[in-house]
């Protein structure tokens, strides 16, 4: 079934980058929510800052590259790169303004009310505090600093990406009494050392309070000690953002590992795409920075009314002795079907097992590899790794398995953005242990989440498989919502073997039993499933699609959803981040509803439900509905066929569609609005899943025992 051209009209699509900014606004709204504990609000404000950094380093940088290259092609919303940059600039400035208004007017007063002080200047200190701070500077900060004057013999130094620095205007002491000219002043810069904590604790005026001063404030107050022959006329902090999007010609790179290592070094010195300065900065200093960083337009300069770079607030979130200002920590519960310490392969043989993280612990996945590494009956382990934790127990088990003589094949995706360096370290370690390490495929990122264990048993060789929606990262598994499945299905085992043969060699299967794999087969599969619902609706049958993902920006998929909606298919989309689809377009998307859930955990699972005239089909996997996932990555979608597991997965979707606490509903005006909860039973999907997991494993002192818990309405 061909999709009508009318559904590809650019006016039916939202620009991807502007949609992302709306997502960051939803995160920022959590920092503005007065019902949320203070330290949690500071955490969300910190997240918006780190999100914005990555957005500039990658997305804005990419658009600037397009402008420099004279690229004129428009995006799916009909915008050129230049038009996008202009719109992004306006939207980002509004976002940053809200960030600092939230901090200055709401969070700082609330922090003071709770005995937490982050001083932004020395004048707010008493004598004891000032003496302590000065002594701290002398003993801990001064020895680390490297002052750099700028003159004819000392050019402006290379400033590293994302580092905080201080720029100063100097005058020689013998000239400070006379009238100054431009030639009489000099410039200098000092990097705020990242090896020292940015939040420096100092004595509090009142017992029980927590008082801090920012490291840059310490340096500013004492900066004259770095330039003894000069008077420091003024000094201000600044920070730059550089283009960090790696450009690698893989066809020309004879050794991908070395090429990525080289490009990682280049990331520190890319084009400056954003300059952040204090809003009261001296005009002469600002012009100096603009000239040195080759900043041609003021659109790339952000004047900040407060501390530059809010990521330091994450340290405040972790402070001790203020537990009442945080949510009660949640401990992931064990999976009922898996008894700790028992043979995990025996448990999987009993039937497929669903994992729902972080509500249920990630330990079974770690144990799956750990037990396989020491099991004498295990012959081989094969696994894909996209992002892993800093001290990964899975990596340790894979290395141990190789040392134990097992065949271990690991695909380590070196092109996992901002994890390249970490993955290079793991790849080298695994190679030294005797593992066969594959560094991804030319032109494609391997984003799939799959682990295969080949085991010799009494009745022959049996293959055990873990498939997931999230990374093999035991740290983020406590923070991200993801689903996984253990199975020893013969059909899926055969497919898993075919996947690894495809990754390690040139073996491309003609067909698959159960798995659907990108970049060749997945787009066609999704379109086929959407079109089937469309045909059923046109035939007068009930038709329903529910899809949960991180991002939706694929033009063809969106057009297919529009055609389905126009035919009468009822469509619910749970999209955490980017959504380029528009709702409420007459005769186009009136049957489509979109919601985004932003809560204490980051929504990361991908689940796809199709009614199929009552013969429901459910898929989970690693792919979003984005061109990169469908066309430029190795992704895996797997069916959920066990009836008990299907009910559990449907329940996840049902509860999230009932969420009226953390859900933001996309409106036809293009905004996201919280649901009016007046007169309604409150449903917080993440809290409900926590409670359900705890009820499956009864414990005393259930922290969620007083929270609302209601049965979800069925999807169909």
Work out the radius of gyration: 28 Å
Relative helix content:
25-40%
Low-confidence stretches: 248-254, 700-709
Tell me the domain tally.
Answer: 4
Report the end-to-end length measured between terminal Cα atoms: 25 Å
Number of strands: 27
Number of helices: 18
Shape: globular
Portion in strands: 15-25%
The overall pLDDT average reads 90
Q: What's the CATH topology label of the largest domain?
A: polyphosphate kinase like
Which structural class matches the secondary elements?
alpha/beta
Largest sheet entry: 10 strands, mixed
> CATH superfamily assignment of the largest domain?
Polyphosphate kinase middle domain
The top-level CATH class of the largest domain is Alpha Beta
CATH architecture of the largest domain: 2-Layer Sandwich
The assembly state of the depicted protein chains is single chain
